[in-house]
Amino acid sequence: MPDTLSVLRRAGGVAELRMSRPQVFNAFDETMIGELDAAFEQAAADPEVRVVVLSGEGKHFSAGADLSWMQRASEADEQWNLADARRFAAMLRRIDTCPKPTLARIQGAALGGGFGLACVCDIAIASEQASFAVSEARFGILPSVIGPYVVNAVGRRQARRLALSMRRIGAAEALAIGLVHEVVAPDALDAAVQRTVDEVLQGGPQAQREIKQLFAALEVGPVTDEVVELTARTISRVRGTEEARGGFAAFLAKQPAPWAPRGDEPKA
Questions:
Q1: Which letter does DSSP use for residue 144 in this model?
Q2: Which residues pair with 133 in a beta bridge?
Q3: Which is nearest to 36 in space by CA: 125, 110, 121, 109?
Q4: Eight-class DSSP state of 65
């Protein structure tokens, strides 16, 4: 069993990975990084898992890097730091490339690396009391490993502003810049997460895998001949899958799709 995570399996194929270090506001160190990486790997490989929810126990989502971990890093040589940073980068990439939809449930603070975790999930839902900051420069370092995901989430100029100013922003501003997708009252957070999970579960799991794979290959900008060909080949291949045939047949018959949760299944 993980030391820093609670792995909860819920009805309908929902896996909740809950960071469980509330005494340090779910700050992560080498152990949590390794356990998050392993947990997302297992969730990706488990055919019973349809969606992964990343959450934090206690008052805050994640305060980012554990200070004792950062102290060890500052005293170690460059080779140790390189290996350590590669493990962190691999964990974020594991979440980013997870073939299952991922959802961040954010309450309280999401700082530094915790900000990065919010960015790397497909969907982020926050409490009105949540706050966010890219705070690394305050310690004389930079948001290097999380940087690509911050840029992807909010755009290059907003990412620069947040990293250079280190300003802590509230949930409303996070929503306005696209960092999170929904903001709700604290007592409505779980219901909002569940509502989104229910929506995700209506989609075909293979189709969702294909969506993530295709969208990862697309960039904002001109639609080139190569992109046109990629999209045409992708849809022509997916149309012929068993999942697509089942989905169309269910729609025409006005019946639930084969993968949709049954109405008699309990909620997560």
A1: T
A2: 111
A3: 121
A4: B
Structure tokens at 44: 């990706």
Per-residue model confidence as pLDDT tens digits over 69-119: 888 888 889 999 999 999 999 999 999 999 999 999 999 999 999 999 999
123 within 8 A of 103, measured Cβ to Cβ: yes
Lookup: tokens for 57: 């126990």
Of 241, 16, 148, whose CA–CA distance to 8 is shortest? 16
- What lies within 8 Å, CB to CB, of 22 at 6+ separation is 56, 57, 58, 59, 60
Q: How many Å apart are CA 118 and CA 2, to the nearest integer?
A: 21
Structure tokens at 177: 């810049």
- The architecture (CATH level 2) of 5-200 comes to Alpha-Beta Complex (3.90)
Q: How many CB atoms lie within 10 A of CB 110?
A: 31
**Percentage of the residues of the chain whose pLDDT score is greater than 70:** 98
pTM above 0.85, yes or no: yes
Which neighbouring-strand residues pair with 108? none
**Nearest Cα to Cα of residue 94 among 151, 153, 41:** 41
H or E segment to which residue 244 belongs: helix 242-252
Structural domain boundaries in the chain: 5-200, 205-252
DSSP state of 28: B
Neighbouring-strand partners of residue 17: 7, 54
